[in-house]
Specification:
The chain is α+β, with helices and mostly antiparallel strands. 29% of the residues lie in helices and 28% in strands. The strands form two sheets. Strands 1-2-3 form a three-stranded antiparallel β-sheet, with no helix packed on it. It has a two-stranded antiparallel sheet with strand order 4-5.
């Protein structure tokens, strides 16, 4: 969605629903389905956001940085 463009919101029996700009699915307009910024839900929905290439790269980079510090010897583990 381009900056300044408004997202589509529809009022249903269940409350406000928002159209995800990536998957074009309607989801409840709350923090369960959309991330919040300054108390306002943002696009895309959480499921689509997690599939963005930039998010995937960032997650993989963090995973590589968290390498195990090394194995502890069995003698040290049994004394605990």
């Amino acid at each position: 969605m381009a900056k300044g463009q408004r997202s589509q919101i529809a009022m249903t029996d269940l409350g406000p629903e928002k159209l995800c700009t990536k998957c074009n699915e309607w989801w409840p307009d709350d923090s369960e389905f959309f991330y919040l910024t300054h108390g306002v839900t943002i696009q895309p929905c959480k499921a689509c956001y997690e599939q963005l290439p930039s998010v995937i790269r960032k997650r993989e980079k963090q995973r590589k940085q968290k390498k195990p510090a090394g194995r502890r010897s069995p003698a040290l583990m049994s004394s605990q």
